[in-house]
Amino acid sequence: MVLNAPILKSNEQQVLDEKSQTSQKLSSFVPRHIGPNSDDIQLMLKVLGFPSLDALINQTVPQAIRLKQPLKLPEAESEYAALISLKKVAAKNQVFRSYIGMGYYDSITPPVIGRNILENPGWYTAYTPYQPEIAQGRLEALLNFQTLIIDLTGLEIANASLLDEATAAAEAMSLSYGVCKNQANAYFVSGDCHPQTIDVLQTRAQPLGIKIIVGDHQTFDFDQPIFGAVLQYPASDGTIYDYRAFIEKAHAKGALVTVAADPLSLTLLTPPGEFGADIAVGSTQRFGIPLGFGGPHAAYFATKEEYKRLVPGRIVGVSKDAQGKPALRLALQTREQHIRREKATSNICTAQVLLAVMASMYAVYHGPDGLKTIATRIHSLTLILAERLQRVGYSISSKPFFDTLRVELGTKPLQEILQAAEARQINLRIFDTSTVGISLDETTTLDDVRDICQIFAGTDELRFALNVEEMEWITQQSGLSGEPFSRQSTYLTHPVFNRYHSETELLRYLHKLESKDLSLTTSMIPLGSCTMKLNATAEMIPVTWEEFGKIHPFAPASQTQGYQVLFEQLEAWLAEITGFAGISLQPNAGSQGEYAGLLVIRQYHESRGQKHRNVCLIPTSAHGTNPASAVMCGMKVVAVACDSQGNIDVDDLKSKAEKHSNELAALMVTYPSTHGVFEEPIQEICAIVHSHGGQVYMDGANMNAQVGICRPGDIGADVCHLNLHKTFCIPHGGGGPGMGPIGVASHLVPFLPGHPVVGTGDWGLGTRKEEIPNPQFPIPSTQHIGAVAAAPWGSASILVISWMYIAMMGADGLTQATKVAILNANYIAKRLESYYPVLYQGKNGLVAHECILDLRSLKKSAAIEIDDVAKRLMDYGFHAPTVSWPVGGTIMVEPTESESKQELDRFCDALISIRQEIAEIESGKVDVQDNVLKNAPHTAESLITDEWQHSYSREQAAYPAPWTREYKFWPAVGRIDAAFGDRNFVCSCLPMDAY
């Protein structure tokens, strides 16, 4: 019985109550994260004609999918409290000295690089350099990275990084498969490769119908045709092999050969390109990048120039600007997935830019001599270790070696060795019950070597003093001093690797590059579909804590209890936010999340005897990564039409689903739509697919419009990937790192990614598995798909950022952030609609968290292209929104919740001012070709020339708005001629005088 019926309140009172309740509930961090304050929110709502935020959301988001209760998350904590809480979690980890190897090594991050790149928002808040005129700094750093890789590998071209060594090897397999003409479908994988690489290759190969042959390269007789092969150099157990004969035989059979090489070893060893390799891949983690329990780390990919149009990911190339100066940009961009779509050879959203920048600067700082000294020192310590172990009765079966030993225990019990190692807080690699591995690294000292020896010597007396004669003898035994292994060729001869060896010089170089890049430290970056929101300092601080950074990804579970708590809590929070039953944190990019989600669906169908289901329906509006991912999963893409309002054509969907009912595997749908609209019939769309036996994959790129308001799992999706680098505050890092975990409904949980070394599934989080089956560690049979990344939890160390964000926001804060993101987008759309038509809107004339502005008419009225507007925005101090996607001739604007009303107004004022500049062209007052838009952006150098031949003033060019007089961000170069760069392909450093 209702005793006191509520009194209907006025709109004004409702607003006051809402403000009061919000202020009471939200923690102190929330208003730090959300840009507009309560007064600004009311002013913006007034412009839109709504009395409250809830009234706006009620008209924007379909009622049928709205959450009926708040998210069940812990109460929000302040920044200080959240850091204390996470510190307690971190303390549960134990930082042992890990000599496990397998592609992961402890390293030393030079403090000048750690503080001025990794911890610097000028580097980590920038976006992918799609507007190169205001990204010359990180493009130069990436060009340095490419030059580093080209020099070390001895190959002709390299890309600007990939996700990890294992997925880079998978990309090499895909390239080889596409290039070879011998009609083979088998790929040889040396059993000496790292186990995680083998597993990722098997995962990638299966849906493409590729047969993986794991074997011994020394005995493989090429009795069956192969299209390619991959070899480890040095091998996973440390042995260095001469691969020349194998490569010659492979080439004779028409196969391409990939060598997965440790780049530090290549300062001493013959580079792969010099002994016949077609492709080289690997990880640059040991170039100053923390272990981080598996990531993020920058992989590399190098090959021959003849394959330049097939190279996965991105390549930075040299071109020229409007004034003829050398200028950098992403080369060969026609490969991007939103252009090539299902014809794409790989998924371009696969880069680790921030980590590649760090690795390149590590090489710049140390130079060729410094890198060789580091490698020589590691090798010398390994020689000493091997000699001393042999003195006390152990044999070394990995010869010759660089930094890794395979130690045969003989009659010594493995458990005795492991107990002695644990007592000294040392981790070794376990091959089997009679063999262990030891990999030394940059941090290893002679005292560490003594401790390792004592583990094996027991009570035997050790002698460590070495005289000159002994050291010379040991060096002669190494096998690296002459052919075929010793490197004879030079490397890193470019001045950039030989100039900045003092901290003063490197600091100035880093600052010079940083000043060329527009990041969130300068202004908003309103890129649609990219969600460039605040990456709060408190969220970033734990990334550099030793308790998270110095943990090997294959460390025993007993040492990683803190990480396990972190994973369990984050998985639970993300499951609540999405409405799903299970979460996998393994995919280390949004593109990998798409790929993993579709593999889970594929595995589900196969488990039910429906392997024939291979059709993937994808709306024509979808992001280009969608069809690329579907093809990588062996699916056939069938396009679904969109109507005049940009929504999925439900009738066409019904028709296509009916036509392909027997083969239907999945629908890939983005929600809100790629066009920035909450489509009303989304539940009907899901039901149609389910009625024909398909699964619904939801692209989580636009999750920032859903959190706390609706949930993919409730809407009807079966799988959804989450871009933690969008919605959950991991910085974009200039184009990477990212994380793309997936959430799945209960029936798909058994199929989430597994891992060959560390268990991630239902047999226990973090349970250690042996690389060779061991009765002590039984692995239950599961239906998991294989690994999709090298490390079991992807780029684990940056998950702390999303943990901090959710912990500090709480349920109310997250919901408020979503509402304000929608408010900000609608405010921009409203302010600009009379200048630039808003292309797509929802049922009530509203957009979601982003809006598309139509500029197509300007080409006809004033000969203005979309790029002219994008480049002119640079003169106003802004990064352009997403251009010509998802509709050519439009810009897609996403302001996020972090931008204040003042910043939104400044951006709108800039676009309005640009529209007035266009109007002057339309009226004939300004020349169609010689105008501020066609010549934008204007550099400082172009404005101080003696002769000014333009019809407009220098002042109009440089200072088009009041705020540009207070602070001016100058583009480093003029408009870049991308076509010239593609015609004259250069992807390594030019001579210094060219700059």
Fold and architecture overview:
The protein has 995 residues and is of the alpha/beta class. A seven-stranded mixed sheet has the order 2-8-7-6-5-3-4, with helices on both faces. It has a seven-stranded mixed sheet with strand order 15-21-20-19-18-16-17, sandwiched between helices. Strands 1-13-14-12-11 form a five-stranded mixed sheet, with helices on one face. A hairpin with a 4-residue loop joins strand 9 and strand 10.
Q: What does the average pLDDT come to? A: 91
The amount of beta strand, in percent, is 5-15%
Please give the order of strands in the largest beta sheet. Answer: 2-8-7-6-5-3-4
Fraction of residues in helix: 25-40%
The chain-level structural class is alpha/beta
- Rough shape? globular
**Count of DSSP H/I helices:** 33
Radius of gyration: 29 Å
By DSSP, the count of extended strands is 25
Query: Whole-Å distance between the termini?
Result: 80 Å
| Model regions low in confidence, pLDDT < 50 over at least 5 residues | 1-9, 334-340, 762-781
User: What's the main sheet like?
Assistant: 7 strands, mixed
